[in-house]
C-alpha cells in the first residue's frame, strides 16, 4: 500500500535590535560591510551591496556587487567575495560574513538575505572547507539577523554528493 508522510524543515536565527547588541567582532564586521556598500558598482539597479568576511587566519576580505550593461554578467557582492577569498587565501576558511546594502537613497533599515544563487555558492564554500559560515545581515541601520551557518538558508540542496549518486 502506498503511504505518504509530511516532512518539515525549520531553522532558528537570532534577531538583534541593532548593531549595538552584537558581539564586538560581529559589530565591527557589519560596520565594515556598511562602509563597503559605498564602493559597490551598481549603476543600473542603484542597489549597493557590501559583504565582508573574517577568515580563520584573521584576514578581512571585502566584496561588492559588480554590475554590467549586459545585466546577467553582473555578480553579487557575496559571490565576488567568495571568489576573491578563495583566490587570495585558499588555505583559510570563512568564519563570518557580514552583508549590508543601501538603495539610491543611501540607506536601508532592515536586513536582506543572500539571493538563491549566492546561497548555492555559500553552500559549496562551506562544504569545500568543511566549516560553517556565520552570516550577519543588516541594513545601514536597524535590526540585525545572525544566522549560524549559511547552509541553513538552502534546505534540500543540490551538492557534489548528488553527482555521484
Ligand atoms: N545583489 C547582491 O549583490 N547580493 C544579494 O544578495 C542580492 C542582490 C545585487 C545584484 C544586483 O547587482 C543588485 O543587487 C540588484 O539585484
Q: Which parts are unreliable, with pLDDT below 50 for 5 consecutive residues or more? A: none
Ligands bound here?
A: tetrahydrodeoxyuridine
Number of domains: 1
What is the CATH class name?
A: Alpha Beta
Which outline best applies? globular
Query: How many individual helices?
Result: 4
**How is the biggest beta sheet arranged?**
6 strands, mixed
Proportion of beta-strand residues: 15-25%
Question: Helical residue percent?
Answer: 25-40%
Radius of gyration from CA coordinates? 17 Å
What is the CATH homology-level superfamily? Cytidine Deaminase, domain 2
- Series of secondary-structure elements, N-terminal to C-terminal: EHEEHEHEEH
The count of β-strands is: 6
Task: Determine the oligomeric state from the structure.
Answer: single chain
What structural category do the secondary elements indicate?
A: alpha+beta
User: N-to-C terminal Cα separation, in Å?
Assistant: 27 Å
CATH architecture classification? 3-Layer(aba) Sandwich
Molecular structure report:
With 165 residues, this protein is α+β, with helices and mostly antiparallel strands. It has a single domain, classed as Cytidine Deaminase, domain 2 (3-Layer(aba) Sandwich). The protein is built from 4 helices and 6 strands; from the N terminus they run βαββαβαββα. Strands 1-6-5-4-2-3 form a 6-stranded mixed β-sheet, with helices on both faces. Bound molecules: tetrahydrodeoxyuridine. The site of tetrahydrodeoxyuridine has 13 residues, from α2. Tetrahydrodeoxyuridine binds next to α2.
Amino acid at each position: 500500500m502506498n503511504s505518504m508522510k509530511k516532512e518539515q524543515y525549520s531553522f532558528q536565527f537570532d534577531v538583534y535590535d541593532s548593531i549595538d547588541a552584537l558581539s564586538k567582532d560581529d559589530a565591527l564586521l557589519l560596520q565594515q560591510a556598511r562602509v563597503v556598500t559605498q564602493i559597490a558598482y551598481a549603476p543600473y539597479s542603484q542597489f549597493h551591496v557590501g559583504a565582508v568576511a573574517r577568515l580563520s587566519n584573521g584576514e578581512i576580505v571585502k566584496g561588492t556587487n559588480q554590475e554590467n550593461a549586459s545585466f546577467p554578467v553582473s555578480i553579487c557582492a557575496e559571490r565576488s567575495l567568495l571568489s576573491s577569498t578563495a583566490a587570495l587565501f585558499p588555505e583559510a576558511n570563512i568564519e563570518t560574513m557580514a552583508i549590508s546594502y543601501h538603495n539610491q537613497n543611501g540607506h536601508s533599515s532592515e536586513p536582506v538575505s543572500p539571493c538563491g544563487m549566492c546561497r548555492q555558492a555559500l553552500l559549496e564554500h562551506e562544504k569545500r572547507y568543511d566549516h560553517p559560515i556565520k552570516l550577519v545581515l543588516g541594513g545601514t541601520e536597524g535590526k540585525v539577523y545572525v544566522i549560524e551557518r549559511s547552509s541553513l538558508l538552502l534546505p534540500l540542496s543540490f551538492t557534489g554528493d548528488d553527482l555521484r549518486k
